[in-house]
Amino acid sequence: MRPARAPRAWRGGAALAFALALALACIAVPSAAPAADAASAPGVQTVVDAEFCSSQSDAIPGADCGWKPVRLANLWTARDRGAEVENAWYRLHFHLDAVPSSGVALYMVALNRSARFHVNGRWLAQRGGFDPPLPLNWNRAQYVVVPPALLQPGDNVLQVQERIYTWEHGWLSPVAVGPEAVLLPQYERRRFWQNDLVRMLGATTLVLSVFVLGVWAGRRDQTMYFWFGCATLTWSAISLDYFALTSPLPGLAWEGFIEIAQVLRSVLIYVFVLRYCGRRAPVLERAMWAWWVVGAVCVATGALPVRWVEQWYLGTLLASLWFFALLVREAQGEDGRVAVVLRESIEDLQLIIDSLEPVENDLLTVLGTLRYRLQDRLGKSGIDLQWNVVDLPPLPILTPHSVLSILRIVQEAFANCLKHSGATRITVTTGLVGEPGNDEKAQIAIVDNGRGIDGTRVGRGLENMRRRAGALGGTLRISSRPGATEVLLVFPTLRAQEPGQVFP
Question: Which member of 187, 318, 392, 443 has the greatest number of CB atoms within 10 A?
Fold first, then answer.
């Protein structure tokens, strides 16, 4: 039988950097203490002393329940682990000199999981269903307005019934009692930082993951995009905890998924850091994946006590320190690398957008757009661009998909010149060979006067260029010697011959 799980607010999760993880934890994890500004606001009393008893009855327990004094936030565990859910009751007292005409507000940072509120023995409100699946209230502040009809001058009693799964802890934070005008802004501010902001971050990481994975789909050789996209996608999946009031899976299965996903996110980020730094560490990477798989199996099956699962989290968190140091060293050594990665990602997005623009089957328009985008970089690099692109007839092959492939091939050729060749001049030439309707092909030649390419070493960038050329039904030919390297893209035009028409 599983021991009661510690509140998620006490469980660690590693991210790219320890400081970042700590900052996000401060945003996403509810504190057990009342908000300081609420506690110190005028007219607000914060109740931290309460009475507690365990009772399975839905009726307010009497004196025979065995009430015992506790201090909030109080943790409690189920007595009957054979059942699926269990109840407990809290009893709190607050004093009113007179009953306000607008009633009073109750504000608490967190409780777990479902709750029913009674004031002076009369029903007030309910937060979450009491039948499984129980709601995800552990990460949500609660706010309830008590109408004047339920209040009385002098001593007032707040009774809170809680229901939890028997495999977890229940708790109730200190309760702030005061005017609605004071506590409502505090509650809304807490809800924004604790819930709304996390939802926005989750939506942002989802969009970011789609974008980055799209970049990786066009640059399969740069696997850091893949790992970063998977990490942000996992981050979005974890944030579902803040979107749904009830979990999409059974309670225990959902808790296991969140625990496993948190460590998976860390492993994905660690692999991304290695790829970003241009490193491969097969032994370390296999160890990280083994660490995650073993822990995931233990969490899913309940094979290890909770304290060992906590060590699983702790080990992942400690590993983040090493990866953070690695990233800092890389940043110190290559100050411009982040800017380069961002620029390349933006350029790839621009290519996708350009490929969707109507070009009327005009190759000159396709290449002219790319020339405009690259002109500034070439000038800053001291490279003279000679543009021998002639006006060609409309080419039926220039669909959005083929335009994107052509743009990526040409852009990759320019990128190789900028990064590796040391060239001072690049010449771009276009033309047609063959007969329309028979074997007519278009040609794009990019020639630079750099140091040349080592023909014995073919990188993934060149492999991707050849793969894209093949997808066009064409070929990519590369010839190189010191002072003259030519990348020649040849692809069919799919143009039919028209009687009496002559084309260059």
Answer: 187
Residue 382: phi and psi, rounded to 5, are 75, 30
- Angstrom distance (rounded) from CA 266 to CA 14: 6
Bridge partners of 154, per DSSP, are 96
Q: State the number of CA atoms in the 13 A half-sphere of 164 facing the CB.
A: 26
Strand arrangement of the beta sheet that strand 122-127 belongs to: 68-71, 49-53, 85-96, 154-165, 114-119, 122-127
Q: What is the DSSP string of 265-324?
A: HHHHHHHHHHHHTT---HHHHHHHHHHHHHHHHHHHHT-S-HHHHHHHHHHHHHHHHHHH
The torsion angles phi and psi of 139, rounded to 5 degrees, stand at: -110, 25
335 CB burial (10 A radius; 0-12, 13-18, 19+): exposed
Measured distance CA(130)–CA(50) in Å, rounded: 23
Measure CA of the first residue to CA of the last residue in the chain; give whole Å.
Answer: 81
* Residue 395, φ and ψ in degrees, nearest 5: -110, 115
Strand intervals (E) in 382-463? 384-388, 425-433, 441-448
Give the strands of the sheet with 175-178, arranged side by side.
45-47, 175-178, 104-108, 142-146
Beta bridge partners of 105: 145, 178
The position carrying tokens 């590693």 is 14
Cβ contacts of residue 301 below 8 Å, gap of 6+? Answer: none
Tokens 């996390």 belong to residue: 198
The encoded tokens of residue 49 equal 């002393």
